[in-house]
Structures are given as structure tokens and as C-alpha cells.
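Per reviewer request, we include the raw input and output of the structure prediction for the construct analysed in the revised manuscript.
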Amino acid sequence: MLDGIRAGARSRTFWLLAGTFFVCGATTNGLVSTHLIPAAHDHGIAQVSAATLLALIGAFDIAGTIGSGWLTDRYDPRKLLLVYYGLRGLALLALPVAFGSEYAALVAFAVVYGLDWVATVPPTSALATAAFPNQAGVVFAWIFSAHQLGAATAAWIAGLTRTETGEYTIAFVGAGALALGAALAVLLINRAPRRPPVEAPALV
């Protein structure tokens, strides 16, 4: 276990994956899961309608995660993360506007956010496995701990923001900016060298 964190701590790839996964946890479990319903209630949306948005996010999350796994097997995981974090950041920046518009805008947010919710996991896991093939499980566990730390931090900061300002706008905009920063950060991850193809044995 400690060997894994020692190996990871010496690698820029580890810190980039942990940092972007911190943002992932902050923008999903920490912010939206915890504060979407209270934020919707602040804008006069009934709790049942707000809960329906979360249910919609969960439903589209299934399709997004499965699709992300399929894409990760075929495309550069860094480019996928660029798209995922970029869309997440833009959606969060648009959320305060969506609260003040028709309910359809919030449904659109839920669809986009649902497709993107756990989509970051397959490419993040693939990059960790490529960078640390002998300790992938342990290293990814430490990366995932950053996800949980980000969730706890965002849940607290968003609540504090609501208490101090009376609204969540700063929290959502700040989280959106973090997600856009994560989208750029993944491009700094070195592409893992490709293994030379294994030649088939000659037929006798």
C-alpha cells in the first residue's frame, strides 16, 4: 500500500490524475449531489421536481459510463477527459442561468451532467494503469481518495458560500472554473509508451 503511494508521489502523472479526480469529486458528489436540491429550492422549484433532476442525472449516468468505457478502449483517454471536464465546467457555469429560466433548461443540464457524471472514471483508470502497470490497483485507490477529499471539501465550501451569501452562484461558477482547469490539466499527462507488438510465432 505504501509502496504504491511512494511510486505515485514521484510521478507528475499521479498528481495530475489525483488533482483532476479531486475536481471530479468536488463537482459531482460534493456539489451537485449535496446542493442541487437546496439550490433549486432557493429558486422556487419544488423538492420533488429537484429530486427528479437528480434521478434523471442518475439514469443518464448509466449510459454515459458504459459509453465512456467503450470510448476509452478506442481513443486517447486524455482527450476524452478534456471533453468530459470541459462539458462539466460549461454546464456548471450555465447552471445559475438555467435556474432562472424554463425548467427545460434544467432538464438539459441534468442530461448533460448525467452523461458526464462517472464518465471520467474509465479514462482515469486507464491512464493510471498505463503509468503504473505493476501497482495500478493501489495507485488508483490513492487517486480515488483524492476524489472523496474533493467531494468533502466542495460540500463544505458550497454550504459556507450559501450561508454567507444567501445563494450558490459563487459555488457553481467556481466549480465550473475548476472543471475547465482540470480539462486543460489532463493534456499535461504524458502519453504512455506503446508496447511493441508481439510477433506471432512462425509456422513450421
